[in-house]
Amino acid sequence: MRNTRIGGAVGLTLLLAGCGGTGTPEASERTTPPASASSPQPAPAADKGPECEGAKSAAGVHLLRGGATALPDGGKATYAEAAADGRHRTAVLSADDGRRTVAPGGKVTLGGHAYTVAQICTYRVVLATADHNGTNQGAQMATWPTTQDGHWRLRWHVPDNGPAMGAVVTDIQDGPARASISVTAPGQGQLAFYDDVRKGGTVEIANRLWKVEAVDPGHMNVDMNSPDFKAGHVDLRELGDA
Question: Which residues contact 155 (CB under 8 A, 6 or more apart)?
C-alpha cells in the first residue's frame, strides 16, 4: 500500500484546530494534501521485549516515547530511543545538556536534578525522586477521551481533541500493519510520538494506558477522491490509569 506522512507542524495544526471526535471533518477543514505515491518504508524489527522492566509502581515523572516532558524543577527531557534484548530494556534520554543511556534502577541527572529510573517500557520511562511521587499529567483528563465499551478509534489524519491535549494517527502502513500516533498539547508541543505501533502494543495517552487492539491500513493506494479510498485507523482498548 501507499504510505503517507504529515509534517510535525501540519500535525500540530490539525490537532489544535478543534475538529475533534471520530467523525469526518467538513471539506473546509481538510487541510491534509491528497495522498501521494511513495515507496513503502521497510518495517523496523519488532521490539524483542519485555514490554516493561523495573518497578511495578508508575509513581514519578512519565517521559512518554518521542515526546518532550516538563521536569518538576524546570527544563524538558525526551525519551528519544528504546532498546531491548529479550530480557532487559534500556532507553536513551535527551535533555538540554545532552543524551544518556539508562537502565531500570539506575540513576540519572536531568536539569540539575537527580532521579532514579524506576521503570522503562516501550512507551514510557518513569523517573522517581524522594519528593516527587505523582505523575505529571492532570486529573482534568477524567472525561476524555470518549470511548465506547472501553474502546477508542483513532482515524488517519482526523484529530481527537480533549480539554488539554489531542491525538491523531499521522502515518499508517502494512506489511505488517503498523502506525504512528502523535499526541500534542497547546503550548507544550508534542507530548508523545508512538512510532511503529502494532497490534498488541501499549501506549499512554491522557493519563491512561491503552492496548492496541487493531491497526487497519484501509485502502489508501488510490486517490483520496476515489470511491474506493478508505482511510486507515487504530483501535485502542482502555487498560486503566497510567
Answer: 22, 169, 231, 232, 233
The pLDDT-based confidence of 85 (bands split at 50, 70, 90) is: very high
Confidence of residue 14 (pLDDT cuts 50, 70, 90): very low
Report helix, strand or coil for 143.
Answer: helix
The x, y and z cell numbers of residue 188, run together, are: 507544550
Residue type, 120: I
CA triple 235-165-90, angle to 5 deg:
70
CA Rg value for the chain: 18
User: Which pairs from 23-32 meet CB under 8 Å and 24+ separation?
Assistant: 23/158, 24/158, 25/158, 32/6, 32/157
Tell me the whole-structure pTM to 2 decimals.
0.83
The C-alpha atoms of residue 117 and residue 40 are separated, in whole angstroms, by: 36
CA-nearest of 218, 226, 227 to 4 is 218
Q: How far is CA 181 from the centre of its chain?
A: 5
- Report helix, strand or coil for 141: helix
CA dihedral 29, 32, 35, 38 (to 10 degrees): -170
Pairing status of strand 178-185 against strand 189-197: antiparallel
Nine-digit cell string for 240: 486503566
DSSP character string of 23-54: SPPPGGG--SPPP---PPPPPPPPP-S-SEEE
pLDDT of residue 133: 54
**What's the rounded mean pLDDT across residues 181-192?**
95
